[in-house]
Every structure is written in structure tokens, then in C-alpha cells.
Amino acid sequence: MQAQAPGQEQKFKPGRVSPKVRVLLVEDEVIFARAVAKRLQQAGYDCEHAATLEDGRELVRQMAPDLVLLDMRLPDGNGLDLLPELVSKGIAVISMTAYGEVTDAVYAMKLGATDYLKKPVDLEELLLAVEKAQTATQLKHHLDYSRQRNMHASEGVELLGDSPAVSSVRAQIERFAQLVSLSDAIPPTVLIQGETGTGKDVAARLLHLSCANSDRPFVHVDCASLPAELIESELFGHEKGAFTSAQASRYGLIEAAEDGTLFLDEIGELPLPLQAKLLNVLERRRVRRLGSTKEHPVQARFVAATNRDLHQMVLEGRFRSDLFYRLNVLTMHMPPLRERGDDILLLAKHFATQTERRYGLQPRPFSIEASHMIRDYQWPGNVRELKHQVSRAVLLSRESQIMSHDLALPGSLQAAPPMVTPEPGVTLESAEKVLIENALRQSNNNVSEAARQLGITRMAMRYRMERHGLKL
Ligand SMILES: Nc1ncnc2c1ncn2[C@@H]1O[C@H](COP(=O)(O)OP(=O)(O)OP(=O)(O)O)[C@@H](O)[C@H]1O
Q: Is 152-334 in the same CATH topology as 9-148?
């Protein structure tokens, strides 16, 4: 059978090589979790279980799930806190809420969950929801790839900011675009470095749009989220029978990029043997599909991005030095958000307006205190973190201004009085009172937020406050 032509969407279809769908269950009720995992495994899913948000986050990194079943009330926080991260990675999420926590389900859907289930959950109903979400995600990925081709990665690409650091990035993108577009030359590779969430993906897309052939494909390969055993066949393609599940020949993404751009995101995660193969492609401009003896010319320009210190990885023997030197020709550095001065507020206002428009909400300004907090916070997750926190604050805020406590930044919690540890001999009852008082102080007397911090419903919080005689 012949390989399909690059224009055919089918060749990108997820799941063709790995039939097992990976499901992550984030749930602290162990007996229920075991029953769900068993039922999903029986139905042919790969299922992993995490009992806390933190373990869930770690497993997302390790197993790159296709779908997450997310409980809302977890020992170390609310499932809503993990949800935006999952949605931004294109992972389907089914939220699971207990009876009486309807608002959580509503927020979860607003934040991009695919579906929600009410507890107690019937296992067959859960299985149906998983199947439905999986079909929807496959369709979405399918469309995403088609969209990448058809819209040429141009939609919604904005590198906002007036700071000198961002202006300099913009100028560099223009300059690099000219250099990689020189007609007769083999285009030099562009390496985009920067902390997570600084806009490396945005910069890569803008670069593509500024190049000659910007109407050609922009193919994004996330080396961190593709399982190691899949990356090779995804990148290089394969012939029918090259390995057990290769039932048809298939173009790899390098060929699919045609004479457009292949964007290798998180290149630091590429396994060492594949680094050698990639170097070979970059040097010889030829690619050979798995199981084939024939080589095909490579026309694409290569853009790579990383938030790792590749030089350090070379010193530690985790990244090939020859590939590093090959990549490190035209290098651009995305500045961290904390170094962009007033751009932070400009971006915050932009994301607030975006969320208000998306959900048809009244425009509201940030309070002076909230603006100061946004400006002073260090933003370790950079623009992505800002975007999520602002969207979340806009959706959750009930007041005429977006207040600092709506932002729920770790800094604001640090600024709150330290937690009081009960003395020995203190009763459970009085310890509970102390915890409630602390949570209220940390959330500036916002009962919903305090309830969220303690992992209980607003109603339960009100009831306990009344029992302890706590008034606002
Ligand atoms: N200057 C900017 N103006 C507007 N939006 C931005 C800007 N920079 C980043 N964003 C937005 O922030 C989010 C994160 O950006 P992006 O994915 O490009 O970061 P990244 O550096 O590639 O992250 P990672 O290292 O985690 O892959 C995206 O939603 C992007 O649209």
C-alpha cells in the first residue's frame, strides 16, 4: 500500500499507532478509584491513578494522558486548579463532583472540561462518558491538525507587549525570518529558549508567518507530550509492517511540513537515539521512514524550542553536543514575564477582556491592590500562568472590581498571617476553628475561597462557621 499524500488528514490521526488510550484518574477515594481503574482496564484503557493534585500533575508529565477523570475535592486542593493546565495541553477532562457541588461542575465546564459526572458515579455511565470524550478529542485533534495546515497557523497569534525586551524579540523574529527565507541557502535552524509559558510557541508561529512560504504547513511537534516510543514513527513516518501495529505506510511529520516549518517544541526531551537521527536529517536534509530503504528530500525549515538549559544538558551527557551546536545557530531568548515591566498589566487587561468577551461578562477593572499584586508577583509560570489566573479571577469574581483575593496568587497567601499550629492537648474542635479562621484570613474573608482552600463546600463552611460562632 502506498503512503498517503501529505494533504490527507488521516495520516495525523492520533491513536493509529497506539490503540491504547491513556486515562488518568485523579481521585482520593481509594476504593472507588480501584473500581474505576479495574473497569477501564477491562474495557482496554491504560489507566493510572493519583490520589492528590500534586501526584496528578506529576503523572500528567510522565504518562501524557489522553483523558483525565478529575475529582474536584482533593486533599491538597481543588481539581479546578489543575483543569486549565490540562485543557491547555489538549487533554480531555471529565470532572467528577459530589452531590450539591453543582457550581464546581459549572466552573469546570466554563474552564474547558469536556463533560462532568455527578457522584455517586455509575461505572457503566462513566465508561460511556469516557468513550464519548475520547471520540470528541480524536475529532478535535484531527481538526487541529487540519486547521494547522489550512489556516497556516495564523489565527490568534499575538505577541503583545511594548517593553524593550519584547520589542527586541519582535525585531529578532523579523531578522531571522529573512535569514531562513534566503532562497538558495539551506535554512539555518532557529532555537527559541525561555522559561515555560514565556511565548516560545507564539514566537515560532510568528516567525513562520514572517517567512517566505508562510502559506505552507506549520507542524508543531511536542517532544514532551508524545510518548518516547511514538516520537520516532511520528517524526520519520513508517512503512507498512515496520513494526507490529504499522498496518499502513505513513508519512512522518518532517515530510508533512513540506516546505513550511517543523516546530520541535521541548526539544530537550527528545531521547538521545532520536537526537542522533534528527542531527542526520538536519545535516543531510534527507529522511528515511522506519522500515524503508528509500530516502526522501527534506525541504522544511526547523525551529526548536526549549525551557531547559541545553548547554548544561550537554555537560551532563543528556543532550548531544553536535546537535546542540547545530541547533544553536540563530538563537532567540524569550524574556521572563517579570522582566517585562508594564507589559504585565497590559497582558492582564488583555486576558481579562478576552475572558469577559468569551463568557459575555460585564467588563470590570482590577482594583488598585490587585494591579499592584499583578505587577509585583514573580510569575514563575510566566504569560501562561498570568492568563490562567486572570481568566479564573474574572470567572470567579463577584464584585464590581477584580480584587487581589480573586487572583489567589501564592504570594498573597504568603503575605497572610502564618498558620497557627495547635498546642499539644488542643481538641479537634478547636483545631478546626483555628483552621477555619486561618483560611478566612488568607482569603480576605471570602467564604467560597476559604471553603475551597479547606476542600469543603460553601454550605459546609457556613455551617461550621456558625457552629464555632465565627462571624464576618
Ligand atoms: N506576548 C504575548 N502576548 C499574548 N499572549 C501571549 C504572549 N506570550 C504568550 N502568550 C500566551 O501565553 C500562553 C503560553 O504561551 P506559549 O505556549 O507560547 O509559551 P511557551 O513558552 O511555548 O510554553 P512552554 O515552554 O510551556 O511550551 C499561550 O496561551 C499564548 O497564547
A: yes
Nearest to 301 by CA among 386, 196, 191: 191
Looking at the DSSP bridge assignments, the partners of residue 68 are: 24, 93
Per-residue pLDDT of 351-383, as tens digits, reads 999 998 888 888 999 999 999 999 999 999 999
- Pocket mutation for ligand 1, best pick of 89, 222, 351, 383 (most atoms within 8 Å of C-beta): 383
Q: Atom 24 of ligand 1 has which residue's CA nearest to it?
A: 196
- Closest Cα to atom 13 of ligand 1: 384
Contact predicate 297/254, CB 8 Å: no
Task: List ligand 1's pocket residues with C-beta within 6 A.
Answer: 158-161, 194, 196-202, 265, 307, 347, 383-384, 387
Contacts of 211 (CB under 8 A, 6+ apart): 177, 180, 181, 261, 301
Superfamily of domain 152-334: P-loop containing nucleotide triphosphate hydrolases (3.40.50.300)
pTM: 0.60
Distance from the alpha carbon of residue 384 to the mean position of ligand 1, in angstroms: 6
Ligand 1 closest atom vs CA 199: 18
Distance CA 370, CA 234 (A): 45
CA 462-463-467 angle, to 5 degrees, is: 115
Give me the residue spans of the domains in the chain.
9-148, 152-334, 338-412, 428-467
Write the CATH number of the domain with boundaries 428-467.
Answer: 1.10.10
- What residue's CA is closest to ligand 1, atom 25? 196
Which residue puts its alpha carbon closest to atom 16 of ligand 1? Answer: 199
Nearest CA to ligand 1 atom 30: 199
| CATH T-level assignment (fold) for domain 9-148 | Rossmann fold (3.40.50)
Note the pLDDT tens digit of each residue in 255-311: 888 889 999 999 999 999 899 999 999 999 999 888 888 888 999 999 999 999 999
Write out 92-103 in H/E/C secondary structure.
Answer: EEEEEECCCCHH
Task: Give CA–CA dist 43/131, Å, rounded.
Answer: 10
Q: How far is CA 46 from CA 22, 154, 233, 397, in A?
A: 5, 36, 21, 38
- Ligand 1 centroid–CA 391 distance in Å is 15
Q: CB of 35 within 8 A of CB of 68?
A: no
Query: 338-412 sits in which CATH class?
Result: mainly alpha
- pLDDT at residue number 110: 78
Ligand 1 pocket test: pick from 202, 303, 350 the residue with the most ligand atoms within 8 Å of its Cβ: 202
The protein residue whose alpha carbon is closest to atom 28 in ligand 1 is 384
